[in-house]
Design a protein that fits this description.
With 411 residues, the chain is mainly α. It has helices at residues 2-21, 35-55, 57-95, 98-114, 120-128, 136-139, 142-145, 150-153, 156-163, 166-174, 182-211, 241-278, 300-307, 309-316, 325-332, 334-347, 352-365, 368-379, 385-410, and strands at residues 282-284, 287-289. The chain crosses the membrane at residues 38-65, 77-102, 156-174, 180-200, 259-277, 357-375, 387-410.
Length: 411
């Protein structure tokens, strides 16, 4: 018995030593309980304590749930509706060769400005008439993506944000004071596009180093598998032209539904947080009161903007310091900032200069803080989110500085 036990010991020791030498990949695995566990708990407690200390514990939960619910009904389903229509049009364009025609006609414009193929203009049009998330519809169409290299395609994250919310912001400002600020829209649009060029080019500098300049767009990023097609030709559906059109519209609409579902988590999580950090309490009879309704917040981002006014005011040349809150609000929600611009215009506290600077920044940023993560998730390029946000931030600041000097020359 003793000899048997002794003989078995080396085997046991060998097994243990082999087990201890097997270390899981630290990039994929962590111990079940690590420092990150306690950092996560501390972060959530700190965030909850901050909101509860300002709003009250019960009010905080009411605001979170009400905001998320309203975003789901009025934002996410709106995006899904736009995505379905945009997907139908995009697929129809592809089926009948309009996409290829756009690529040839607009390449001389898109290439020198954004270093993108002409077909990227389809994404600009789609997002201009809707929201940032709509860029995923044309981008994920294999018939569109084939014109891109991977390093170019991934920059559609910032390219789409540059043009997103365009018609909403332009229409909103044009409607103030019976078109009094129409010149601001024209000048601000030009400056916003320049900011978008800077943002897109900055991100492209990053993607070139990550993906190289020769790789194409893989099928894992697209809504369908790429099919080999002879050069200079496009693949079409079977049937008569009417049948092909119906099939294309239905297929594109289905892709839009998938996109609408994919952006819901990002919109609800990040937009709710940004809104609660941007907005203030409700105003009842001229007094700030927390009612626990949607879109109330602590106003932290606006307060930080006031603290940085000594830097931002010289950059943008704002005549009224209160105007600074408008572009800061547009970081999280461009539409919400539009309401503030209208209030200031009705009160006579914002002029042509400040409106131009505001519009340039607001359109270039288009609420990217609350949408970039969800759009990056839809495009399956989460690894670019942080750098893309930094590039979009710089692009918006550049748009504001340019708008400042152009407004000083013209007004």
């Amino acid at each position: 018995m003793a000899m048997r036990k002794a003989a078995s010991r080396p085997v046991e020791m060998k097994a243990v030593s082999e087990e201890t030498r097997t270390i899981p990949d630290p990039l994929k695995y962590r111990p079940e309980i690590s420092k990150g566990t306690f950092f996560c708990i501390a972060f959530l407690l700190l965030l909850g304590w901050y909101f509860a200390s300002v709003m009250g514990f019960g009010t905080m939960f009411s605001v979170v749930m009400s905001t998320a619910h309203d975003l789901l009904l009025n934002t996410c389903f709106y995006i899904m509706g736009v995505a379905v229509l945009a997907g139908a049009v995009s697929t129809m364009f592809t089926e009948f060769g309009v996409t290829a025609l756009l690529n040839k006609l607009l390449a001389p414009l898109m290439k020198p400005l954004f270093n993108l193929p002409g077909v990227a203009a389809l994404g600009a049009i789609t997002t201009y008439f809707s929201d940032n998330a709509a860029i995923a519809i044309p981008s994920q169409d294999p018939a569109v993506a084939k014109y891109f290299k991977k390093y170019q395609w991934t920059t559609m994250l910032n390219f789409g944000t540059t043009f997103g919310m365009g018609v909403i912001l332009a229409g909103g400002v044009l409607g103030i004071k019976s078109g009094k600020f129409a010149a601001c829209v024209g000048i601000g649009s030009l400056c916003a596009i320049v900011g978008g060029i800077i943002s897109t080019r900055m991100l492209m500098w990053k993607t070139k180093r990550m993906y190289g300049t020769t790789a194409g767009v893989e099928d894992k990023y697209l809504n369908a598998n790429t099919k080999k097609v002879p050069a200079g030709y496009r693949q079409i559906r079977s049937g008569s032209p009417m049948q092909r059109a119906l099939d294309a519209v239905c297929d594109g609409g289905k892709a839009g539904v998938k996109l609408g579902l994919s952006v819901i988590p990002g919109v609800l999580i990040f937009t709710t947080l940004v809104m609660m950090l941007t907005n203030g309490p409700s105003m009842v009879d001229g007094q700030a009161v927390y009612q626990g309704v949607a879109y109330e917040g602590t106003g932290l981002l606006t307060m930080l903007g006031d603290k940085l006014a000594f830097i931002l005011k010289p950059m943008f040349g704002l005549v009224n310091p209160q105007s600074l809150g408008l572009p800061l609000t547009s970081l999280g929600a461009a539409g919400a900032s539009l309401a503030g611009a209208k209030q200031m215009a009705d009160a006579g506290t914002i002029g042509m200069h400040d409106m131009t600077v505001y519009f340039a920044i607001a359109w270039c940023w288009a609420g990217f803080v609350s949408s970039h993560a969800s759009v990056a998730d839809a495009l399956k390029v989460r690894e670019l989110t942080t750098f893309a946000m930094l590039a979009q931030l710089i692009g918006g600041l550049a748009a504001g500085v340019l708008a400042n000097y152009m407004a000083l020359l013209l007004f």
